[in-house]
Every structure is written in C-alpha cells, then in structure tokens.
Write a structure and sequence with these properties.
With 638 residues, the chain is α/β, with parallel strands linked by helices. 24% of the residues lie in helices and 27% in strands. The protein contains 15 helices and 31 strands. The strands form 7 sheets. Strands 1, 2, 3, 4, 5, 14 and 15 form a 7-stranded mixed sheet that branches. Strands 18-21-22-25-24-23-26 form a 7-stranded antiparallel sheet. Helix 3 packs parallel to helix 4. The longest helix has 22 residues. It is globular, with a radius of gyration of 26 Å. The termini are close together.
Length: 638
C-alpha cells in the first residue's frame, strides 16, 4: 500500500484555510514579496488545484503542511514558518432557532444577491453595525431588493454603530434604520410559511419583528488579525478580512496589507540573517507606516465623528466643521467641484488614487490638513464614482441663473432629463424637489446633474423619485423578469420553477424550500450537510446546477436548532460545563474534552461562538487547531 507522498522544503508556507472567498489575497501577495525579497523561499497553497488537509507542527519552529492536488495525490511541504489564512466567522452566539434557513451568514446573502432572484421583502434584519453590515444594508436598499432594512447591534458593551459615519449616513439615506437588541428567538410564521418572527430583547422589553431573512454580519468579536501559536513557534494564524474587490471593503483590505508588512518583518528577522540593507530600510519604513495605519484604524472609535441634526439641518457646530473641512470647496463660482463628506480620520485613499490630475492629496496629520486642491481639479467626476461609501457629490455653479448638484444614480428607472426628484439630506430626509437636467457622466452608475434650489446646495446629498409607485410590486416583477430562463424541477415530489443553471442550494433558498443544511453554500462539499438525492444519485446541493426535469429528494433533514454545535447537538450549557471542568489545563487541553467543532461542518457553524465561550473560562485565550475545516484530518491510502 502506497501513500504517494511527495515532499518539498521551503522557508515560508502560506496556506489557505477552508472556504476562503479570495486566495491569495493582496495581503498574502505583499507578505510573499517581502519575504522573497529577503532571500527566503516562499510558496502559497490553496484553491481548487491544491487543497490543504492539515499541518503537523514540529518541535522548534514551523511544521509540515500536507495537501492534496487535483489528481488526489498527497504532498507535504516542510516549512520553517507556516502562515494559515483563515476565513472570518460571521455567526453570533446561538439563540432559539438560530440554526435555520431564516438566518444566513453574510457570504450566503451575497451569493443570493449576485446569483438569485430573491425579493427580500418586507423586512431584512442584519445582525451587526460594522462597515460590512451597513454596506450590505445599503446594497439591498439601493437595488430595490429589500424595501426595509434594520441593522441591529447585538453585542453588549459595544457602541451602537461600529462602522464609519459616512457608511451610516449612506445607509440611513437609503431608508435604513439602526437599533439595538439581543435576539432570543427565530421561528417560521405558521400562517405565511414565508416570513420569520425574530424575537428581540432590549432595554424596553421584548418585541417581535416579522422579516423575510436575518443576516449574520457582525462584527461579533474583536479582530485580532494574526497570532502565533505557541509563541516562538513560527506557526501563525492569520484571519483573512479581504473581499473580492477593494471598493467592497476598503478598511479590511488596508488592514490585510498593513498586517502583511508587520508579519513579514517578524518572519524575516527570525529566518534570515543576511537581509540587504536597502530592503531592510524599505521594510522598516513600510512597517512604521503600517503601524501608523493600524493605530489610526484602532483609534477610529475614539475619534469617530457623529453628525448631529436639528430637524433636517446640521447643528451649527457641525455646520462649522463641514465649512472648515478642506474637502469642501471654498470658491465654487464658475466651477464644477467635488464636495467631500469624509471628515473622519479613516485610512481610505481610493479617491486620491483614482484622481487623474492629482487634485486630491489627503494628509490629516498636519496642523492645516490637506484634501482637495481646487485649482488643479477639472471637475471630471471620477472621484464620485470611485468613492466606495458614496461620500462625494459635486456642485456645478457655472451658470448664474441656476445651481446644480451632481449625484450617482442608483435608482432602477433610467435617468432622463426633466424627471422630478426629491432632494435628500445626509440622513435621507426630504429637503425639497429638483429636476434632472442631464446625464453628467455615463457609465455604471451614471452621474446625473440635478437642478436644486441654491439654499440647499450644501445639504443635498441624494435623490429619490417623486411618485415612484409601489416599489414592492415593481421590484418583485423586475427581479423575476431579469432572473433569466426558468425550468421545472421536482423537489420532494413537488413541481417547482427555478432559474436554469443556478446552484441547487441557492435555488431552494430562493423559492422558500431551503433547509438549515444549505445555509453555508460553501461550494466545496466538504461538510456534506447539503447532500441530496438527484435522479437517484447522491450529490452536494452546493455543487449541483439546476437543469430541466431533475428530481430532488432530501437525504437528511436537520430540524431547526438552538444547540451551540448543531452537528453534534451540544448545547451551550453542556459545552460550558465541559470547558469549566477542565479550565485549569489551558484552552487546547480543555477542548479535547468536547466534540464541539468536530462534527460534519468542521466548526464552520459553531467555531467562533465556541471560542468566544472558551475565552470566558480560559486565561491563555489562545487556541490553534492545525487541521482544516474543509477536511477530516486523516491520511487516506491511494
């Protein structure tokens, strides 16, 4: 019997954990470049062709990485340092009914938005008030796929809003609401069979929200970035924060790249004794900048600006702040200039990088901070399109008889000259009415020039159609028409019409036939939770595409759950008891006495909640499981 093991040796191995959306990330690439520049041999392993199975730590430092290639051959790489890139966990602490198709992780919600014709009515509740949660809420509202969205802060002791002020204002401008409360129950409405009842407890008592979905987004815990376990071992866990596009989440992309420089310095100092002086100086400068960026991001909460209003208007002291901010033009007559509401000390530089004439130079550290260089600005509008938070509008004050504001147009109706619109302030209140003059800049989204009353020019931050009709009916019909060809399939002996070529897991969630087993939609079949019988053959619903006439039966039907670990049926009380008994032996030892995180999903559903509970009992607060959540940790003979 042969295991077919192939071996290699290197200095730094960067390994993808299970279900990563992006690999290699920009941070991984930056880390690799720094280490390679210092003369270290570096490789990254992950993706569809190289699937990591586990890591065997070695005495001293580093370990052996075992992975499988596309031809099912086993390989091992002995590395002096191993960096494992893990997926962020987006599940809250369990509550009654949390394990159900009524609650979806953010990654699944994004897949539904991109690959399904779901109308998220009448209400979507997003658990979390960080930037990702606020952006997701704005995305649902501006696309018209959800008429109402509430972002709910559920973590006690945290600020009500954890995201940037510009993200909060955009979310509220599109009609979103922010609230606080702890979810204590989620149940399917017995009459509608479509809506879910979310029970929430807050300082006023208990209330119930009828919603179409609950999306777990977070943050639910502090982001520690990376940690070495144990200290001095050069075995590093790195939490991936990056998404597909930088514009989708600027902050986390910046975090990843800043952490890459700090981690690279640590690895290079430990592994290389002959670093070129020029590289050492460059790395030292980059690490200093990275630490400054990390400090800036960490201190954002202390320096966060929250706009306060008196009715529809900013309070005088905040009006003064806005007027003094160097991102606001001071001489607008006869010009087209951007108006930037980015007063917070955030590290985003997207508009600066995109400006073709270097008219934006952001430096907040000076006594007289810099932002917009009016004399250089050509009024092209590229910064408006580039801003990931829609914090930039423009003022066109070229004509003496009229003033125009320029906005990005995200409404479903095509913009046409003469269309009447409502003019909105920063938080979405209607200030008055205006008229679309023309399209200032085509593309996606188009920028429209809107005639506004002169006294509103500095407070106009968005538009909404006048007499828009019934958005619920229009959106549902439009989504159905845009969804593409639909085919007939049978699910549990019932005829259903779903979109051709769609993943079966997403299709079942879309038509209200989803199961708790389908909520991960991981697309690698690693947990097997979503196994179904398709025309007599066992298949994974997360990997199977819909086709005409297919016949689907459920192989396993997990009931809605409240257990901490749904796969093993372990309750919070049972887990706390097991951990509490062995709390004096350290995190790793204590976890050997429970089967939580070792079920079919390999911790994808429960790991974050379990480790949060462990931290409440343990002093060391460190734990590393060097197997991978996508695989059982065992070597299989050929």
């Amino acid at each position: 019997m042969s295991l077919g093991m192939r071996s290699g040796v290197m200095d730094v191995a960067i390994v993808a954990g299970g279900r990563l959306q992006v690999f290699p990330t920009r941070g991984v690439r930056a880390l690799s470049q720094w280490c390679a520049g210092a003369g270290l041999s570096v490789g990254w392993y992950g993706g569809s062709d190289l699937r990591p199975i586990g890591i065997l730590p070695e005495n001293g430092s580093g370990g052996v990485v075992v992975f499988e290639d596309s031809q099912h051959r086993l390989h091992r790489i002995k590395a002096r340092a191993v960096v494992r890139v893990l997926q962020q966990q987006h599940f809250p602490d369990p509550f009654q009914g949390w394990f159900s198709p009524g609650m979806l992780p953010e990654a699944t919600a994004q897949k539904l938005i991109a690959d399904a014709s779901v109308f998220w009515g009448p209400l979507v509740v997003i658990l979390g008030t960080g930037n990702r949660a606020l952006r997701l809420g704005s995305q649902l509202l501006k696309s018209g796929t959800a008429p109402r969205v509430i972002c709910l802060q559920i973590v006690e002791g945290r600020p009500l809003i954890e995201g940037w002020e510009v993200e909060r204002l955009r979310f509220e401008r599109y009609g979103g609401r922010i609230s606080r409360g702890k979810p204590i129950g989620l149940a399917l409405e017995s009459l509608s069979r479509v809506l879910w009842s979310l029970k929430i407890r807050d300082e006023t008592g208990t209330r119930i929200l009828e919603c179409s979905r609950v999306i777990a987004c977070g943050p639910f815990e502090e982001d520690v970035g990376f940690q070495e376990y144990p200290a001095g071992s050069l075995l590093v866990d790195w939490t991936n924060t990056e998404v597909q596009s930088v514009a989708d989440d600027v902050e986390t992309s910046l975090l990843d790249q800043a952490r890459a420089a700090v981690l690279a310095q640590r690895l290079i100092r430990a592994l290389s004794s002959n670093v070129p002086t020029s590289l050492k100086l460059d790395l030292d400068r980059s690490v200093w900048k990275a630490k400054q960026a990390l400090k800036e991001l960490e201190e954002l909460e202390l320096r966060k600006l929250t706009f306060e209003f008196k009715g529809k208007w900013l309070k005088p002291e905040h009006q003064a702040l806005v007027g003094e901010f160097p991102g606001y033009p001071k001489k607008t007559a006869g010009k087209v200039l951007p108006v930037m509401d980015c007063l917070e000390p955030i590290a985003c530089r997207v508009c600066e990088k995109q400006c073709p004439v270097q008219a934006i130079a952001i430096d907040r550290s000076l006594t007289q901070p810099k932002f917009l260089i009016e004399d250089q600005c050509t009024g092209c509008g590229i910064c408006v399109k580039a801003c990931p938070s829609e914090a930039i509008t423009m003022i066109d004050d070229q004509l003496p008889q009229a003033v125009y504001s320029i906005f990005p147009w995200y409404l479903r109706r095509k913009p046409e000259p003469g269309v009447r619109v409502q003019i909105l302030n920063r938080k979405g209140d209607v200030l008055g009415q205006g008229r679309v003059a023309d399209i200032f800049l085509d593309g996606e989204p188009p920028l429209v020039r809107v005639e506004v009353p002169e006294h509103l020019m500095w407070d106009a931050k968005g538009v909404r159609l006048v007499n828009a009709g019934d958005p619920t009916k229009e959106t549902a019909e439009a989504l159905y028409e845009e969804a593409g060809t639909r085919v007939e399939i049978r699910i549990q002996d019932q005829e259903r019409r779903v979109r051709d070529g769609q993943l079966l897991s997403l299709a079942m969630i879309e038509i209200g036939h989803g199961r708790p087993n389908d909520i991960l939609v991981c697309e690698d079949g690693s947990c097997g939770l979503c196994t179904v019988d398709v025309d007599g053959q066992k298949k994974f619903a997360c990997q199977t595409r819909v086709r005409q006439g297919m016949n689907v039966h459920f192989v396993r039907e997990d009931a809605f759950g409240s257990a901490l670990c749904p796969c093993e049926g372990i309750t919070v009380e049972e887990f706390d008891k097991s951990i509490g008994i062995h709390s004096g032996h350290g995190t790793e030892a204590a976890l050997q006495f429970t089967t939580a995180m070792k079920g079919r999903c390999h911790g994808a559903l429960c790991a974050s909640a379990c480790l949060r509970r462990v931290k409440a009992h343990q002093e060391d607060q460190r734990y590393a499981d060097w197997s991978f959540p996508s695989f059982d940790w065992q070597v299989k003979p050929r």
